Amino acid sequence: MGFLDSILGRSKPPQADLDVLFSVPQAVISLQTEGFTPTGVGSVCFRDMEGRADDQVMADAEKIISSSPGSTVTRSDDRFGFHWLTVTRNDADVSGLVTDLHAVNSSLADAGFGSALLCSTVVFSTPEGKPFGLVYLYKRGTFYPFAPDTGERRDNALELQVRGVVAQDVPVEPDLSKWLAIWGAPGLA
User: Fold this and answer.
1) What InterPro entries is this protein classified in (predicted)?
2) What angle do CA 24, 104, 102 make, to 5 degrees?
């Protein structure tokens, strides 16, 4: 950021650290010791960019991921107008899932759409079968757990429990006000 930008109050968005996604498999080991199970579902959420260039980037990423055995890719939009690209791995291999999500994120960032990236999720289930997600916030470079409950309520106790389990494995968002609800996210609805 230049001197004039700082005087005028303009700032550049921070660059996403996409490689931090590769710390998720270590968190999975910690979660599994507590009885939580990965579902093999993960998603990338992004804002639509004007034009069709991002559509081509997404189509290319889908083609790459779909070519790996056991992976399927779907696109969806939520009620807030955000786009989701969801990867499902039949083998629930988290390392492979993270690699697939990283490929989607990298494709968008390399094509100049890094500022459109919002978050990535990796979905788990509790021993009781309730879903929760480990959410990576690009703009913050941190993770937080999101555990939807019935209606549009959250299971705060589960979120805090998960935070305690993964705190040594991934950078956890310290500001609880940044733990955003992602209602209707794929795998968590």
Assistant:
1) PspAB-like
2) 25
Domain of residue 96: give its range: 16-178
- Residue 118 belongs to some domain of the structure: yes
Cβ-contact 27, 80 below 8 angstroms: no
Confidence of residue 3 (pLDDT cuts 50, 70, 90): low
The answer to whether 142 and 173 have CB atoms below 8 angstroms apart is: yes
Q: How many domains does the chain have?
A: 1
Mention every residue, 6+ apart, whose C-beta is less than 8 A from residue 129.
Answer: none
Q: Phi and psi dihedrals of 80, rounded to 5?
A: -95, 0
Q: Which amino acid type is present at position 26?
A: Q
Adjacent-strand bridge partners of 37: 125
The rounded distance, in Å, linking the Cα atoms of 109 and 185 is 21
65 assigned to some structural domain: yes
Q: Which residues contact 92 (CB under 8 A, 6 or more apart)?
A: 37, 38, 39, 40
Sequence-distant (≥ 6) Cβ neighbours of residue 59 within 8 angstroms: none
Which residue type, as a one-letter code, is found at position 17?
A: D
